[in-house]
Structures are given as structure tokens and as C-alpha cells.
Amino acid sequence: MTSACDMLAAPLSEGASRCFGEFEIDTSAAILRRGGVEVRLRRQTWQLLCLLVANPGRLCSKAELFSALWPNSVVVEDSLVQCVGELRKALGDVDRSMVRTVARLGYRFEAPMLTMRHRPPPTAHAGSTAALLAPSWQSLVAANNATQVDSARRQFEAHVPDAALRAEAMAGVAMSYVIGVLNRWVRRPAWNVALAREAAEEAVALNSGSALACHARAHVALIEGRHVEAYLGFRAALWRDPALVRARLRMGVIEMELGHPERTA
To answer: Can you tell me the distance from the alpha carbon of 145 to that of 136, in angstroms, rounded to the nearest whole number?
Structure first.
């Protein structure tokens, strides 16, 4: 006889990455990320997400979910309601459009899904994007004073109206503010941090797969003192572009600041 748990599809296969909206489910690390930043979930809430994502558009009955999440326990219905509530909060699902309640029966996951087993190779356009923005990045890296940083920022801002370049151009704008703050070249650091945060958030929202966008947002988190979030952001940037060695350097610095010098090497 088929059990309720058997009726559900296997939660998620190892090595397959599921994406929906701003979110990515990293099956190898059992982590949910939003724009490259980890979203922490309790074990049952994580399992609930995996079950729903593995069965998109399908009604997952309460009996199936109870059997899958608490196979050897007797729990009250509030336990499932709490898990669903925690999941909706983590997803920002205020209008309950992702996790739909089917009255008295169960729940259905309705967010559009994308499954990827390997990171997509760079496209020809991605290469041309990098080439177009390369002079701006070179100017920013070579900047030795506030005037040169402002000049590099204007170069990035000139590319912002181009939809194809906007995400990484905004990442460059964010980094220009970050560099000004780190080098104490600005008179109003708090204002510049706010501008950096706004630009970095827009860059990630436009292209959450951009290593440079994740890198910029991680830098903002770092200068705001949110070290764990910064560490996760740099790790996300490195995952997207292993050649981005500056992200690895920053991770090492954070490890030292958090009191783990043995991990820095």
C-alpha cells in the first residue's frame, strides 16, 4: 500500500539547484538563499519548503505533509501551521501567492520554478558587457583620491540607462561609494553608505546571478558591521565567479575579525 509520504515527490535531488523569483535552493549545502544571502530556516520548515518545491502546482495534503515531516511522531495541526507561517515569512509571501492554502485539505506551491544542474556558461553578451564596463572598473581600481573615485562613478552612471548593463553598472556605483567610505575620502560617510546600499540592492534585484552585484552588497554589509551577512555575500559572489579572488580575501579578513584566524589561511 502506498503511504502518504510515498505519494510526494522526493524532496530535492542532490546536485540540482531550484530557483524561483529571488530565491535559490542550494541542495548541496541545504541552504535557502535570497539574492545570494542565506535565509535561515528550522529543519522542519526547510523540509516543508523542499517538499513543496519538489511538487509545484500539486496539492500536498495535510496527511502527506505530517507523514513526511514528522514520520515517527504524533503532533498537533498547529505544528504544520507554524511551519507554513515561518516559511511564508522567510519568503516574504505576504499575500500567500507562493504557498497557497487549500481550505481543510493542504497546501500548494505556485511560484514559477527553474531547475539548473550546472551554472549556465557565460553568454556572448555577458562577455561584451564585461568589455564595455572594463574601463570603468579599471578607473575605479586605480583611483587614488576622491576626485578619481567620482570620475569612475560618473563612468558607471553613464551606462545605467542601458538595461543590459544596468545591474553591473549599479554594482560599480555602489563600490565607488564603498571605496570613498573605506578610504575616508567623503565628508558624510553615513550618507555615502546609504547610497551604496541603495545601488547594491538594485544591482542584486536586477541580476541576482551577478558576482559583482553580490560582491558590492557584501561590502555594504561589511562596512555596516553585519559581518555574517557580509561573509555569506562574499561566498555567494565567489560561487558565481571563482576568479573573484577579492571576495575570498574579504572572507579571510572577516574570519580574523570574528576570532577565527586559523580559518583565514
So the answer is: 15
